UniProtKB/TrEMBL annotation:
Subcellular location: Membrane
Superkingdom of this protein's organism: Bacteria
Protein name: UDP-glucose:undecaprenyl-phosphate glucose-1-phosphate transferase
Boundaries of every Bacterial sugar transferase domain copy: 280-459
Lineage: Bacteria, Pseudomonadati, Planctomycetota, Candidatus Brocadiia, Candidatus Brocadiales
NCBIfam families named in the record: EPS_sugtrans, WcaJ_sugtrans
Pfam families: Bac_transf, CoA_binding_3
Species of origin: Candidatus Scalindua arabica
InterPro entries recorded: Bact_transf, EPS_sugar_tfrase, NAD(P)-bd_dom_sf, Undecaprenyl-P_gluc_Ptfrase
Transmembrane region(s): 12-31, 51-71, 83-103, 115-132, 285-306
Family under the similarity heading: Belongs to the bacterial sugar transferase family.
PANTHER family to which the protein is assigned, alphabetical: COLANIC BIOSYNTHESIS UDP-GLUCOSE LIPID CARRIER TRANSFERASE, UNDECAPRENYL-PHOSPHATE N-ACETYLGALACTOSAMINYL 1-PHOSPHATE TRANSFERASE-RELATED
Membrane topology note: Multi-pass membrane protein
Chief location: membrane
GO cellular component: membrane
Amino acid sequence: MLKKHSKFFETLVLFMDLITLACSWILAYYLRFYIPIIPVYSGIISPYTYLNLLLAILPLWYIVFKYFGLYRPRRISSKVAEVWDIVKATTIAILVLVTLTFFVRKYEFSRVTFLYFWIICVISLSIERILFRELLRFIRKRGYNLRHALIVGTGGMGREVTDRVHNHPELGIKIKGFLCENNSQIGDELEGFKVLDTFENIRNVVVNHKIDIVFITLSLSAQETLKTVLDDIGDEMVSIMVIPDLFEYATLRGGISEFEGMPIISLRDTPLYGWNIVFKRVADVVLSLIIILVASPLMLVISLLIKTTSRGPVFYSQERMGLDGKIFNMLKYRTMAIEAEKETGPVWAAKDDSRRTSIGAFLRKTSLDELPQFFNVLKGDMSIVGPRPEREFFIQQFRNKVPKYMLRHKMKAGITGWAQISGWRGNTSLEKRIECDLYYIENWSLRLDLEIMWLTVWRGLVNKHAY
């Protein structure tokens, strides 16, 4: 029954894809030659010639989409993952199509039409798949198109899988129960579901309860048990998903990737890779330049006030720790007397600190002393948004006091951050600040950066803990 349902939906999605592709190709032709945003110089080729090219387009897209797994069941995977696969598959298919048409010397197909086709395909196929998924979720929430699942293992990971599946009825997965290691747990209830039997009887449970999906959530020490379980259901028509409890140790965007067909489990990683690095860097440079240009009259006034009200340089440079533990010199407007730490050594700034200059208290209270750090951003030492950098002297104390403290250095240091807009700035709870920093790294996106920048203007510039 599982195979029949999968085949039916594969055929249905394929049919919708072919219709969408044909319409996208016709629309691309129409936009190119009948709404010429870019002038047409070589004349209009007959629409029948372009329609004939569909004989190559439709099978080509099917082959590439099949290769990317876009016709396999995606009951658990996310919409974003499917859209990203559509982008990659469509890009490759377009490149192959352009290459093939290059050898057709009889006709000169418009490259602009191919560009339009690529854009329309990505958008229309993504919308089509999302709408189809929503339709399936609507049906599944009402008890149709369900799959019955069995959880092998009664540990923490098994319970977490059960909880997550149970909280997403739109997936259409119905938990039938657990399997345990020994007889003592049979009949117990975990997360609202019964322990049905032991590992040794998995084949009987799968057959008797008509199981479609088996989630194996055994500990790393149960390797021999895992082999036995897999052997027992090796020829059963069920989907098998192994979730090792190794994921309990995953931090900072841990996940699974693939290398030459071999799955690799990442326990710790940075969100800044590939295009993410480019997008964040471009945003940093553009916004920093704008802020420096707009604030330049104010920065000139501040510089003159510092120079005329106290002895010493306008700027103050201090070593801080940034991305991957690298030390850099962070710029600030000088707000304290020269050699303020000569007698005390490195210390936190205190309320009503006597070391501050006459204008220094105001600059620190309003965060205007941080303006020169936009030059650090342009240089690449810092980002506009990220965990606030700290001095190495304090870091050596904090890393022994606060678990996972050093993980905040997996992201480039920032002028402002999630901790600052959440009220954990200055001499406040270090634990809460680290919690906010790690939350930011785990959930980073350009949208989150923009949200933090916006909230900084309203919450973060003037702060009772800034002194």
